[in-house]
Design brief:
The chain is an alpha+beta fold and 216 residues long. The protein is built from seven helices and four strands; from the N terminus they run H-H-H-H-E-H-E-H-E-E-H. Helix 6 links the parallel strand 2 and strand 3. It starts with a helix and ends with a helix.
C-alpha cells in the first residue's frame, strides 16, 4: 500500500513538473512573439542625425553631392529594374543612411502582400507622410532567404519591393519618384548563420534623401 502511494505521489509530482514546464514554454513563446512595428519606431529609425552629410563649414560634402546626383538619376527609372551596378552603389549609400528592416509578409511564392502585413505597412505609410519625413526619397529593398535559385529570388525580391511601393503610392499618395524599389534576392542575408531564417525575408526601408536634399 505504501509503495502504491509513493508511486502515485511520484507520478503526481512528475506531472506537475511537466505541466509547469509547458506553462513556462508557453509564456516564453508568447513573450517572444513579434510585436507590430509602430509609426514612432519607424520615424525614430529613419530620422537622419544632424550634420552627418555636411563638412565643418556647413556645406554638403562632395561625396554627398555625388550621391544625391546618383539618387536623383535613380528616381527617373520608373519602368525598369536597377542594374547590378546601380543596386550595389545604392546599397553602399544606404549603409550610411538611416534605415529600418520590416518583416513584411507575402503569400507563399508570391509578391501578393498578406493581410497580416497590412498593419506594419500602414505604420510605414503614416511615418513616411509625417511632416518630419514627408517629401524625402526612400529606398525599398526586397530580400529573400537562401531557399531557391539566385535568379528566381532576385526577381521575386524585386516584385515584392514593387508591391510595397504600389501599396504606399495607392494608400498614402506618396509620389512615385520618391520611392526607389529594388531587390537583392538572397545576396544580402541578415542572418548568415541561418540562411533560411525568417528574418532574412524582409523589406529594408532607407531614408536616401531628406526633403531638403531632394529639393537641391
Amino acid at each position: 500500500m505504501s509503495t502504491y502511494r509513493l508511486t502515485r505521489n511520484g507520478m503526481t509530482r512528475a506531472f506537475m513538473v511537466v505541466a509547469s514546464g509547458l506553462m513556462l514554454l508557453a509564456d516564453c513563446g508568447f513573450a517572444g512573439a513579434a510585436e507590430p512595428v509602430s509609426e514612432s519606431q519607424i520615424l525614430n529609425a529613419l530620422t537622419p542625425r544632424s550634420g552627418a552629410t555636411r563638412n565643418l563649414s556647413g556645406a554638403p560634402t562632395q561625396q554627398n553631392v555625388q550621391q544625391q546626383n546618383f539618387i536623383n538619376g535613380l528616381r527617373s527609372h520608373k519602368t525598369r529594374s536597377l542594374t547590378l551596378d546601380e543596386r550595389n552603389e545604392v546599397a553602399d549609400i544606404a549603409k550610411q543612411r538611416p534605415s529600418i528592416d520590416l518583416e513584411i509578409y507575402f503569400d507563399y511564392n508570391s509578391a501578393e502582400i498578406a493581410s497580416k502585413a497590412v498593419p506594419d505597412l500602414m505604420s510605414l505609410g503614416r511615418a513616411l507622410t509625417n511632416p518630419s519625413l514627408q517629401g524625402g526619397v526612400f529606398l525599398l529593398s526586397g530580400h529573400t532567404d537562401a531557399k531557391g535559385g539566385q535568379e528566381y529570388n532576385q526577381q521575386l525580391s524585386e516584385r515584392r519591393a514593387q508591391s510595397v511601393k504600389g501599396f504606399l503610392v495607392k494608400n498614402f499618395a506618396i509620389a512615385d519618384d520618391n520611392l526607389v524599389a529594388t531587390g537583392y534576392g538572397k545576396e544580402r542575408l541578415k542572418n548568415q548563420a541561418n540562411p533560411f531564417a525568417a528574418e532574412n525575408r524582409r523589406v529594408q526601408v532607407t531614408n536616401l534623401q531628406t526633403k531638403q536634399e531632394a529639393g537641391k
